[in-house]
Write a structure and sequence with these properties.
The chain has a single domain, classed as 3-Layer(aba) Sandwich (Glutaredoxin), CATH 3.40.30. The chain contains four helices and five strands. The chain has a five-stranded mixed β-sheet, with helices on one face. α2 links the parallel β2 and β3. The radius of gyration is 25 Å and the shape is globular.
Length: about 160
């Protein structure tokens, strides 16, 4: 009985404060998707498999998706300049979308990701603004996205 005498005020205070013996927790909001940050190096994704580009957007940064293949000489020519752009521009993140499936030693035009995005020419760029909206993409070669990338590369020291 003596213990109940002390327990009753504690329970009343708990109820008044909004607590209960069985604490109710609000459901956590459903995640919107993976949130990526800009690392020191551009990331490489896909490896021939389908990919949802918006899962790799870097919030608050202009994200450049570079569709590429290790067997494409013009793509290889962009490797170092894009790496430098990624490192020198804090507002730009480069994401390399490798259209080649492992083990194939030529440009993999039949890969799921190449088919998904209708690739018929690479390098191919898609640029999303800091707000996650598509700003430019290459629908012809060279397209407006490649022209913007080339402009940025020309402005680097």
């Amino acid at each position: 009985m003596m213990r109940l005498k002390y327990l009753l005020p504690v329970l009343c205070l708990s109820l008044l404060a909004g607590c209960s013996p069985r604490e109710k927790t609000a459901a956590a909001p459903a995640p919107v998707g993976p949130v990526h940050t800009k690392g020191a190096e551009p990331i490489r994704i896909a490896y021939g498999e389908e990919v949802k580009l918006t899962d790799y957007l870097v919030p608050g940064k202009t994200t450049v998706f570079d569709f590429t293949s290790p067997y494409c000489p013009p793509c290889r020519a962009y490797e170092e300049p894009l790496h430098a752009l990624h490192q020198q521009r804090a507002d730009v993140a480069i994401v390399k979308v490798d259209i080649n499936r492992p083990g194939l030693h030529q440009i993999d035009w039949q890969s799921p990701v190449a088919q998904q995005y209708g690739m018929d020419s690479i390098p191919h760029f898609k640029i999303f603004g800091p707000d996650g909206k598509l700003v430019a993409e290459d629908t012809v070669s060279p397209g407006p996205a490649r022209q913007l990338v080339n402009q940025w590369l020309g402005e680097m020291h």
